Amino acid sequence: MKKQNLLLIVFSITCMSCEEDNGSGASVNLWGVNYPVESTLKLELYNLNITGAIPEEIGDLTNLRHLDLGKNQFSGIIPPEIGNLTDLSFLSLKDNQLTGEIPIVVGNLQKLNYLYLNGNELSGKIPSDLGNLNKLYELDLSYNKLIGSIPSEVLNLESITDLILGSNELNGTIPYQIRYLSHMTGKLDLSHNQFNGTIPFQIGDLVYLRHLDLSANQFSGAIPPEIENCIQLNNLLLNDNQLTGQVPQSICNLNHSENGDLCFECFWDSFDIRRNKLCPPYPSCFGIFHHEEQDSSGCL
Fold first, then answer.
1. Looking at the 3D structure of the chain, how many domains does it have?
2. Taking the complete model, does pTM exceed 0.85, yes or no?
3. Which domain, by its residues, includes 208?
4. pLDDT digit string (tens) for 192-221?
5. DSSP per residue over the chain, as a string?
């Protein structure tokens, strides 16, 4: 009885933004509640400890604009029927136990502004079809088991502000197409993957970016001096790679300690280059603790 009452409460909350229902028309039964197809615009079932698979019938609620099933215990695959929800602007399945690949039909959801699939056990490659989501502002696929490289189509997303791919098993290099994200104003997080090669100089085209995290990969070579162009950065994390050479003095142009943001005189909250192979002399703006934990055995 308590569970039934809870579901009724959830139903009343999630339909607050729905149109008035006249009691007629088709409905879909999900988790013991009948949701009218025509008037259900928002389904918010966040953090309710719901278990089991996401039912394929979710795809029958074709007028949904907002779907949040985050922070539950859903398991199994993301049902391909979710591709029927073409009016969605918000989709969150984060912090569950979902497995399998990201279905390519997610690329059909071309009205999406926010897509959160982070915190699951999703595998396979990032579908290039996500490049169809040209109204997408935030894409978070972090904390999964995704492999392969970043599809060039994703780097062409016209509206993206935050691209968060950290803590996967992604590999390959950062392609030159990274320059097409020059409009980004939020976060680019590629940390804790298996990316290699050099950091491309085109990273300096991301002049509005606030947060850049390339830590815990296998990047090698020098820090490109063009990074000084990223003058809006509040966070720059390059630690735990295999970067070599000297840190360009021009990086000091990013120092915003007076604003409490990117701070080279502070500890490692906003700037970190530890555990690389960087050589002295270090830039004059650095605190001495930024010299620590460098493997300088290959320095002249």
1. 1
2. yes
3. 40-291
4. 999 999 999 999 999 999 999 999 999 999
5. -HHHHHHHHHHHHHTTTSPPP-S-S-EEEETTEEEETTT--EEE-TTS--EEEPPGGGGG-TT-SEEE--SSEEEEPPPGGGGG-TT-SEEE--SSEE-SBPPGGGGG-TT-SEEE--SS--EEEPPGGGGG-TT--EEE--SSEEEEPPPTTGGG-SS--EEE--SSEEEE---GGGGGGTT--SEEE--SSEEEEEPPGGGGG-TT-SEEE--SSEEEEPPPGGGGG-TT-SEEE--SSEEEEEPPGGGGGG--GGGTSS-SSS-TTTEE--SSEEESSPPTT--GGGGTT---TT--
